[in-house]
Structure prediction request, 440 residues.
Amino acid sequence: MQTHIVTTPFGRRSMTLGSIARQATARTMPEGVRVNKWQVFQHIREARDLLGATDRALAILNALLSFHRETELSADGELIVWPSNEQLMARANGISAATLRRHLAVLVDCGLIIRKDSPNGKRFARRSRGGEIEQAYGFDLAPIVARAEEFKDLAEAVQAEKKAFRVAKERLTLLRRDIVKMIDTGIEEKVPGDWGSVLQAYQAIILRLPRLAARQVVEDICADLLALHVEIREALESFAKSQILIGNESHSERHIQTPHRDSISESKSNGHNGEANGEAVKNDNTRSLPKRDLSLGIVLNACPNIRDVAPQGEIRHWRDLLSAAETVQRMLGVSPSAWADACQTMGQQQAAITLAGIYQRADRISSHGGYLRRLTDRARQGKFSIWPMITALLKAKQDESQESVETDKTMSEHEVMPEPIQFEVSPSLLRTLQNRKVRR
Prediction:
């Protein structure tokens, strides 16, 4: 057995207070502790991000553990292994010498191993006449034994975090699906409410979701989506109850109010430049907008003009919308190359929705083919999404409906009853009528 502990590294490698603290922790491990080295290695592998270990470093640690003959590591046994660099490189899948040295340093910095350097830096063991190891120089595996419980706790924490993250993502998916389908139901069933603003509120929340989101970010977004989910559900339930009790949807006083109004960017129409179609939305998170949640009902509600060119005036499936879009493409004079480029870049379904939005505002766009090419280029750069376009069209439709109602109300308030027609009778005609009455 070793008679002393070497604490300083060989050569130019400097000593740090952290390495001294890790060696002190390894020396204070309880006596008689025995751990399964592969089980502890599994815990280390699961908690590698918290420990700061790399994949290559773990491969080298796996090789070092393989040089210890026993499966169990004991505090009372020999915990030093002394393989040469060539042996380590062979068991670590043939990594280079520079990579080996770099990741051995990572293992030391993470406190997973301790260097036990000889006076000349060589790794070897000195044995007694009876074959027992008297002194060994190499890599000490004592931290594996001393910190086994710590590694286990870290692995359990990582597993709990992964589970919580998985649950949060599942909840986010369910909330997104429910909200989009409930909005679609509200529009198709003509439930009173500003559904365009509701859709904008949903889009504003989703825009905050990055591609690689942390669990806390996902949970915060779920909280906002849940509030919107509750509001929409209560509105639909209230309207459904009123239909059962009264039988007249006009008696339902439940309306969707505009949620999160401060966080919603209102889309404005700007004449012939097509800003009403949502191209003005410029955000680095455009790619994070929902791409498959947009239902056919919402598209047809925002772009009702596309029904006019559909066979028999009905669009029941996405394939019907694609057929109608091809007809619109010829009607608007969009070249086949521009249409093919849009379908290849956006996908046929997204391109058909885009063309339906252009057709809805065809009178405000001077060059339909050029505008489609412009949107295609923006989609190729990841700067265009159909959600702002459809949201702007729904908002414009809602505004037009409100203006029409207000105009009718104003006309009814200022409506004046016509004055009765008055006739003038001459004195001579009046005397004649009186004479005829006397004669009778």
